Model the fold of this input.
Amino acid sequence: MSNLVVAHTRYFLIEQLRVPIGILASALFPAISMLAFVVPFAGGEPKAATMATGSLMFFGAMSGALIGLSIAVAQDREQPWNPYLRTLPAGPFPRFAGRILATIAVMLLSVIPVLLVAAVFTEATITPVRLLLGLGMLVAGGIPFMLIGVFIGFMLTSKAAIAVSQILFFPLAILGGLLLPPTMLPDFVEVVSPYTPTRGAAELIWWAIADHSPNTVALVALAGWTVVMAVAAGWAYRRDEGRRFS
Done:
Protein backbone atom coordinates (compact mmCIF):
# COMPACT_ATOMS: atom_id res chain seq x y z
CA MET A 1 0.00 0.00 0.00
CA SER A 2 1.50 3.30 -1.05
CA ASN A 3 2.13 6.12 1.39
CA LEU A 4 -0.45 8.24 -0.42
CA VAL A 5 -3.18 5.63 0.07
CA VAL A 6 -2.28 5.37 3.77
CA ALA A 7 -2.33 9.16 4.12
CA HIS A 8 -5.75 9.47 2.48
CA THR A 9 -7.17 6.60 4.53
CA ARG A 10 -5.91 8.21 7.74
CA TYR A 11 -7.35 11.59 6.72
CA PHE A 12 -10.79 10.14 5.96
CA LEU A 13 -10.87 8.17 9.21
CA ILE A 14 -9.98 11.26 11.24
CA GLU A 15 -12.68 13.16 9.35
CA GLN A 16 -15.21 10.48 10.30
CA LEU A 17 -14.15 10.34 13.94
CA ARG A 18 -14.35 14.11 14.35
CA VAL A 19 -18.03 13.97 13.40
CA PRO A 20 -18.97 10.48 14.62
CA ILE A 21 -22.75 10.75 14.21
CA GLY A 22 -22.69 8.61 11.05
CA ILE A 23 -20.76 5.83 12.79
CA LEU A 24 -23.05 6.01 15.83
CA ALA A 25 -26.17 5.81 13.67
CA SER A 26 -24.80 2.78 11.79
CA ALA A 27 -23.82 1.05 15.04
CA LEU A 28 -26.56 1.90 17.53
CA PHE A 29 -29.72 1.34 15.48
CA PRO A 30 -28.90 -2.34 14.74
CA ALA A 31 -27.91 -2.88 18.38
CA ILE A 32 -31.19 -1.36 19.59
CA SER A 33 -33.06 -3.56 17.10
CA MET A 34 -31.24 -6.57 18.56
CA LEU A 35 -32.37 -5.66 22.06
CA ALA A 36 -35.95 -4.94 21.00
CA PHE A 37 -36.67 -7.81 18.61
CA VAL A 38 -33.99 -10.52 18.61
CA VAL A 39 -33.27 -10.87 22.33
CA PRO A 40 -36.91 -11.44 23.44
CA PHE A 41 -38.03 -13.57 20.48
CA ALA A 42 -34.98 -15.51 19.26
CA GLY A 43 -32.32 -14.92 21.89
CA GLY A 44 -32.66 -18.40 23.36
CA GLU A 45 -32.22 -20.27 20.06
CA PRO A 46 -28.52 -20.48 19.14
CA LYS A 47 -28.80 -20.74 15.34
CA ALA A 48 -31.65 -18.22 15.02
CA ALA A 49 -29.82 -15.75 17.28
CA THR A 50 -26.59 -16.21 15.35
CA MET A 51 -28.26 -15.63 11.98
CA ALA A 52 -30.14 -12.59 13.31
CA THR A 53 -26.86 -11.20 14.61
CA GLY A 54 -25.33 -11.59 11.15
CA SER A 55 -28.30 -9.86 9.55
CA LEU A 56 -28.13 -6.85 11.85
CA MET A 57 -24.35 -6.67 11.57
CA PHE A 58 -24.79 -6.25 7.83
CA PHE A 59 -27.65 -3.80 8.33
CA GLY A 60 -25.26 -1.42 10.08
CA ALA A 61 -22.40 -2.06 7.67
CA MET A 62 -24.69 -1.48 4.70
CA SER A 63 -25.61 1.93 6.10
CA GLY A 64 -21.96 2.99 6.08
CA ALA A 65 -21.36 1.51 2.63
CA LEU A 66 -24.42 2.91 0.86
CA ILE A 67 -25.50 6.04 2.70
CA GLY A 68 -22.13 7.11 4.11
CA LEU A 69 -20.16 6.66 0.90
CA SER A 70 -22.74 8.26 -1.38
CA ILE A 71 -22.89 11.38 0.79
CA ALA A 72 -19.10 11.54 1.18
CA VAL A 73 -18.45 11.27 -2.57
CA ALA A 74 -21.12 13.86 -3.37
CA GLN A 75 -19.75 16.27 -0.75
CA ASP A 76 -16.21 15.78 -2.07
CA ARG A 77 -17.34 16.85 -5.53
CA GLU A 78 -18.77 20.08 -4.13
CA GLN A 79 -15.50 21.12 -2.48
CA PRO A 80 -13.24 23.43 -4.52
CA TRP A 81 -10.24 21.39 -3.34
CA ASN A 82 -11.50 18.24 -5.07
CA PRO A 83 -11.03 19.28 -8.73
CA TYR A 84 -7.47 20.34 -7.91
CA LEU A 85 -6.67 16.96 -6.32
CA ARG A 86 -7.98 15.18 -9.40
CA THR A 87 -5.51 17.04 -11.62
CA LEU A 88 -2.42 16.02 -9.62
CA PRO A 89 0.06 13.52 -11.13
CA ALA A 90 -0.83 10.81 -8.56
CA GLY A 91 -4.25 10.48 -10.20
CA PRO A 92 -7.54 9.56 -8.54
CA PHE A 93 -6.52 6.12 -7.23
CA PRO A 94 -4.89 7.03 -3.85
CA ARG A 95 -7.79 9.22 -2.77
CA PHE A 96 -10.41 6.77 -4.01
CA ALA A 97 -8.66 3.81 -2.37
CA GLY A 98 -8.36 5.76 0.87
CA ARG A 99 -12.08 6.52 0.80
CA ILE A 100 -12.95 2.84 0.24
CA LEU A 101 -10.60 1.61 2.99
CA ALA A 102 -12.00 4.19 5.43
CA THR A 103 -15.53 3.06 4.55
CA ILE A 104 -14.58 -0.58 5.21
CA ALA A 105 -13.14 0.45 8.59
CA VAL A 106 -16.42 2.21 9.46
CA MET A 107 -18.38 -0.87 8.36
CA LEU A 108 -16.35 -3.06 10.70
CA LEU A 109 -16.65 -0.61 13.60
CA SER A 110 -20.43 -0.57 13.20
CA VAL A 111 -20.76 -4.28 14.00
CA ILE A 112 -19.18 -4.07 17.46
CA PRO A 113 -22.33 -3.08 19.45
CA VAL A 114 -24.36 -5.82 17.74
CA LEU A 115 -21.72 -8.40 18.61
CA LEU A 116 -21.67 -7.22 22.23
CA VAL A 117 -25.47 -7.46 22.54
CA ALA A 118 -25.41 -10.93 20.99
CA ALA A 119 -22.65 -12.10 23.31
CA VAL A 120 -24.26 -10.78 26.50
CA PHE A 121 -28.00 -11.26 25.92
CA THR A 122 -28.44 -14.17 23.49
CA GLU A 123 -27.39 -17.79 23.02
CA ALA A 124 -25.67 -17.01 19.71
CA THR A 125 -22.52 -19.08 19.32
CA ILE A 126 -19.56 -18.71 16.98
CA THR A 127 -15.91 -19.73 16.78
CA PRO A 128 -13.11 -17.18 16.18
CA VAL A 129 -12.50 -18.65 12.71
CA ARG A 130 -16.16 -18.34 11.73
CA LEU A 131 -16.28 -14.80 13.11
CA LEU A 132 -13.33 -13.76 10.95
CA LEU A 133 -14.88 -15.50 7.95
CA GLY A 134 -18.16 -13.73 8.65
CA LEU A 135 -16.44 -10.34 8.77
CA GLY A 136 -14.74 -11.16 5.47
CA MET A 137 -18.10 -12.04 3.91
CA LEU A 138 -19.56 -8.84 5.35
CA VAL A 139 -16.92 -6.81 3.51
CA ALA A 140 -17.38 -8.84 0.33
CA GLY A 141 -21.15 -8.46 0.50
CA GLY A 142 -20.74 -4.73 1.02
CA ILE A 143 -18.90 -4.22 -2.30
CA PRO A 144 -22.01 -3.70 -4.48
CA PHE A 145 -23.38 -1.26 -1.91
CA MET A 146 -20.15 0.73 -1.94
CA LEU A 147 -20.40 0.80 -5.74
CA ILE A 148 -24.02 1.99 -5.52
CA GLY A 149 -22.85 4.68 -3.10
CA VAL A 150 -20.11 5.77 -5.51
CA PHE A 151 -22.61 5.85 -8.38
CA ILE A 152 -25.08 8.00 -6.43
CA GLY A 153 -22.31 10.28 -5.18
CA PHE A 154 -21.04 11.02 -8.69
CA MET A 155 -24.52 11.46 -10.14
CA LEU A 156 -26.21 13.67 -7.53
CA THR A 157 -25.61 16.61 -5.24
CA SER A 158 -25.02 15.89 -1.56
CA LYS A 159 -28.58 16.84 -0.57
CA ALA A 160 -30.06 14.61 -3.25
CA ALA A 161 -27.62 11.81 -2.36
CA ILE A 162 -28.84 11.86 1.27
CA ALA A 163 -32.45 11.42 0.17
CA VAL A 164 -31.88 8.83 -2.55
CA SER A 165 -29.52 6.65 -0.52
CA GLN A 166 -31.94 6.58 2.42
CA ILE A 167 -34.89 5.81 0.13
CA LEU A 168 -32.96 2.84 -1.28
CA PHE A 169 -31.58 1.65 2.05
CA PHE A 170 -34.68 0.52 3.92
CA PRO A 171 -36.51 -1.23 1.05
CA LEU A 172 -33.32 -3.14 0.21
CA ALA A 173 -32.88 -4.12 3.87
CA ILE A 174 -36.48 -5.31 4.15
CA LEU A 175 -36.54 -7.15 0.81
CA GLY A 176 -33.21 -8.79 1.57
CA GLY A 177 -34.44 -10.33 4.81
CA LEU A 178 -32.22 -8.32 7.15
CA LEU A 179 -35.05 -7.26 9.47
CA LEU A 180 -37.18 -10.41 9.24
CA PRO A 181 -36.06 -14.00 8.54
CA PRO A 182 -36.78 -15.08 4.93
CA THR A 183 -39.28 -17.68 6.19
CA MET A 184 -41.37 -14.90 7.76
CA LEU A 185 -41.46 -12.69 4.67
CA PRO A 186 -44.76 -12.31 2.76
CA ASP A 187 -45.00 -14.53 -0.32
CA PHE A 188 -44.50 -11.75 -2.87
CA VAL A 189 -41.47 -10.42 -0.97
CA GLU A 190 -39.98 -13.91 -0.74
CA VAL A 191 -40.16 -14.19 -4.53
CA VAL A 192 -38.27 -10.92 -5.05
CA SER A 193 -35.83 -11.31 -2.14
CA PRO A 194 -33.22 -13.61 -3.79
CA TYR A 195 -32.70 -11.09 -6.58
CA THR A 196 -31.70 -8.25 -4.26
CA PRO A 197 -28.04 -7.64 -3.36
CA THR A 198 -28.93 -7.56 0.33
CA ARG A 199 -30.22 -11.14 0.29
CA GLY A 200 -27.05 -12.36 -1.45
CA ALA A 201 -24.85 -10.60 1.12
CA ALA A 202 -26.95 -12.01 3.97
CA GLU A 203 -26.68 -15.52 2.54
CA LEU A 204 -22.87 -15.22 2.48
CA ILE A 205 -22.80 -14.08 6.12
CA TRP A 206 -25.27 -16.74 7.28
CA TRP A 207 -23.17 -19.40 5.54
CA ALA A 208 -20.01 -18.12 7.21
CA ILE A 209 -21.27 -17.79 10.77
CA ALA A 210 -24.12 -20.30 11.09
CA ASP A 211 -23.35 -23.06 8.56
CA HIS A 212 -26.47 -22.08 6.61
CA SER A 213 -26.84 -23.53 3.10
CA PRO A 214 -26.78 -20.47 0.82
CA ASN A 215 -29.40 -19.73 -1.82
CA THR A 216 -27.66 -20.14 -5.19
CA VAL A 217 -29.93 -17.66 -6.96
CA ALA A 218 -29.15 -15.01 -4.35
CA LEU A 219 -25.39 -15.52 -4.76
CA VAL A 220 -25.58 -15.30 -8.56
CA ALA A 221 -27.71 -12.15 -8.25
CA LEU A 222 -25.15 -10.64 -5.85
CA ALA A 223 -22.37 -11.26 -8.38
CA GLY A 224 -24.52 -9.72 -11.11
CA TRP A 225 -25.25 -6.64 -9.02
CA THR A 226 -21.53 -6.24 -8.32
CA VAL A 227 -20.60 -6.33 -12.01
CA VAL A 228 -23.44 -4.01 -13.08
CA MET A 229 -22.74 -1.47 -10.36
CA ALA A 230 -18.98 -1.53 -11.06
CA VAL A 231 -19.73 -0.60 -14.68
CA ALA A 232 -22.25 2.05 -13.58
CA ALA A 233 -19.87 3.58 -11.01
CA GLY A 234 -17.06 3.71 -13.58
CA TRP A 235 -19.38 5.37 -16.09
CA ALA A 236 -20.55 7.91 -13.49
CA TYR A 237 -16.94 8.80 -12.67
CA ARG A 238 -16.02 9.30 -16.33
CA ARG A 239 -19.17 11.36 -16.87
CA ASP A 240 -18.31 13.61 -13.93
CA GLU A 241 -14.70 13.95 -15.09
CA GLY A 242 -15.82 14.86 -18.59
CA ARG A 243 -18.12 17.58 -17.29
CA ARG A 244 -15.44 19.08 -15.04
CA PHE A 245 -12.33 18.85 -17.17
CA SER A 246 -13.42 18.72 -20.82
Remarks:
- The two ends are 31 Å apart (CA to CA).
- The chain has one domain: 3-245.
- The mean pLDDT is 89.
- The chain is about 80% helix and 0% strand.
